[in-house]
Every structure is written in structure tokens, then in C-alpha cells.
Design a protein that fits this description.
This protein is α/β, with parallel strands linked by helices and 446 residues long. It has three domains: 177 residues, HAD superfamily/HAD-like (Rossmann fold), CATH 3.40.50.1000; 73 residues, Hypothetical Protein Ta0175, Chain: A, domain 2 (Alpha-Beta Complex), CATH 3.90.1070.10; 158 residues. Helices cover 28% and strands 22% of the residues. It has twelve helices and 18 strands. The strands form three sheets. Strands 5-4-3-2-1-10-11-12 form an eight-stranded mixed sheet, sandwiched between helices. Strands 13, 14, 15, 16, 17 and 18 form a six-stranded mixed sheet that branches. α1 runs parallel beside α9 and α1 runs antiparallel to α10. 42% of the residues are buried.
Amino acid sequence: MDRLNGSARLMIVSDLDLTMVDHDDQENISLLRFNALWESCYRDDSLLVFSTGRSPTIYKQLRKEKPLLTPDITIMSVGTEIAYGESMVRDDGWEKYLNYKWDRGVVLEETSKFHELVPQSETEQRPHKVSFFIEKSKASAVMKALSEHLEKRGLDVKIIFSSGTALDVLPKGAGKGQALAYLLKKFRIDGKMPVNTLVCGDSGNDAELLGVPEVYGVMVSNAQEELLQWYEENANNNPNIIHATERCAAGIIQAIGYFGLGPNVPPRDIRDFQTCKVDIFSPGHQVVKFYLFYERWRRAEVEISEFYMQNLRLVFDCMEISKESKYRVWVDRVSSAQIGSDVWLVKFDKWELSVYSLQVNEEWGFVWSMLLILQCLSGAAMLSNHCFTEFKGHGTGWIHMDAYSSDLAGGFRTRRSNYMDSIVYQLARQDSHLSPPHPQSTSLLP
């Protein structure tokens, strides 16, 4: 929460399964589109929050399987656990708050009396969450009876039915909506209330998110029956909540545009990068655009001559360049710091999916780490490994790169090689004191 000095321009709070992540999209296209939009336009001044019913164990597993960005805040176990940053620092204050009128032992004792309840896996049983499967036709009656039993035992609980099969018993003060309200209160106390907040969901346990006051909300097009029913009964006249016509992450992008919360055209949607420009220079935008061009070349989706290939080899002289139709690349945690009047230090994680990485681990993650320098001149920019080059008609380019690999294993993405890319950006004006030591006239982008 301390990454930003002031208020976030936009805070997106999104469920994962079948909201941010489309399990029917085998190539993860909508998720990769969202990633490109977020890292190019929002990462530097906005906050990304994942709010999931998953426990930490299976949340981490999902991050190995899908190209998920690193969120600033993670709300897990149906709003009973809050963690911050990549290291997932737990919010102990939230968990202490949930202890009020909660006794897990009593919950287990009372739920054991209902044979309709089938316990979920041990990983999904958490200190403030007891989870079961139940047939949809029996859920309503069991929820009513169980609530009465627990109230008689002096507990104050909440029972949530979602996804047509899952039943969770939580403390009364828990839930995705209450967890978000708790975070917003902390922001308000710190004087850092987000300018706009967009919540996103598809199932019953997301209803509380949509019920938080003064937020925008989107139900993705594939939203489930229990959430649509809640909407009809509680929020049908709320102009700040929409039912998107697009699935999953594409529906989130649609909502950003519908509510006018900021840019909503992902760089992945733009075929001609000469039209993919921003009003204010953004290192993140340039990083995303560059690697998208590289991906398209690797996938043989753009025509490129041997002349261009030689320049690509200058940039990627640390690796064997080959074309493959399944290749994908995405960047995460793009951050920049201006370290001079026209110099930026930029760090990011770069993840690749290629035939080689699939042979190694069947998951996302064989990457290289690089140090690059960018110089931008009016009408020309430079790109090279150890020299300047020029590509006309583009405002930015790489002029230096040192490539190396360094295994940062030990994080929770244990089966993915995690490397850091560091880029130094040099933005030079027409009257810059810098001059290219070895000028060449070459072009990378067509």
C-alpha cells in the first residue's frame, strides 16, 4: 500500500476464477490483453487488487498456471485474509478483528450434523473460513437451518453460497465486501483514497464487492445465476454497476471504457504501433510495445527482413532467436524512477512462454534479464547493444543493453524461473548534450 505516494488514479478489485481468469480461454488472450493495458497505462499510478475465494495455497498454484500480474494487494479465502505486495505480508489486524464471536471448533461441530455438506480440501479450510460442497437444490434449506444452529451457540456468522456448489461459513464481519471496506477505511485515514475504484466479479461471493458504496462495478458477461439474481433484487437501478457483454478480463476492459476511468485500448489490440501513442511519455508503454513487437516477430505475425533480424539479434544477442507460433511474452511490475533530468531507471519482470519453457516446466517462465538504455530524439530514436542506431518515425528506442540471467528462485512461483529486467531510459531532447559515439542508420520497427 506504500508503493504510491498519493491516491491511486484507479484501483481495480477483481475476482480471479472466471472473472480475471477465463479457464475456457486456453491461450489466455483476454488476460494478456488486460496485462498489456495495465502495465502500459496504469501500473505507475494505480492499484491492482485480487479478491478471490481461493486459499493462499491454490492462489499461488493459479499464479504458476496463468499469466497473472503481481497485485498490490491480495484478498483471499473469501475476504478472510489480506496480504500486501509480492511478498504477501499478512494483515494481522484484519484477522484479529474477525475473531469477534467466532469459534471455529463450534462451527465444525455444528456443520458435522448436516450430511448434505461435503468438506472441501484441507487447503481450503482456513482459520476464519470453513468450506463445503453442497448440491444447489439443498443449499437454501441447509443455510437457513445452519444459521439458526450457530446463532443459538452464540456465534455471529455469515454463510455464502457461490458458483452453484460452494458453501462457506465465515465470521459475520468477513467477506470480500467487508475486506474492501476495511482497505478503503485505511486509505481514507492515510489520506490516500483512490480517485476511482472498479470492482469486478462473476459469482455469489462477489455480490458484497458490488454492494460497497461509491464504487463502480462490473459483472462479466459470464456471471453466474446467483450474482445476476442478487443484481436484480438489489442493484438493478444502480447506474454504477453494469453487466458486461464481454467475458472475464475483456469485460473488465469494457467497464473501464464504459465508466470513463482511463485508457481502455490494450496495446495488444493495436496492429500498427505507429498509431499506438500516448500523450505523455511512459516508460511502461514503451516496454510493453517493444516486447509485443518482438512477440509478433517470434510468432511470424509480422513481415521482417534480414536487415531487421540483424538488429533484433543485436538486442537479443544473448539468446538464439527462432520463430514459433505458440510464443508469448508479457511484462509485470513495471516501475520507473527518474534519476536525472532526462534519465529513467526502469525495472520489470519479463515472462515468456515458448516451446523451450514448456519442455522445461510446462508453465510460464523462462526469461532473461537485461539492462537497456533508451534515447529519444525528435523524429528519431536509437537502438543497439553497444552503439546507437536510428529508426525513423518512432519516438523511442533502445540504445544499450547488457543481457544476463540470475535465478531468483525461492519466491512462491517455485516452478518458474524468475528474473528481473532492468532498463535505463535516456530521454534526450533536440538540444541534448549527448551525441551518439558510433552512429548508424538502422531501423528496428517497420
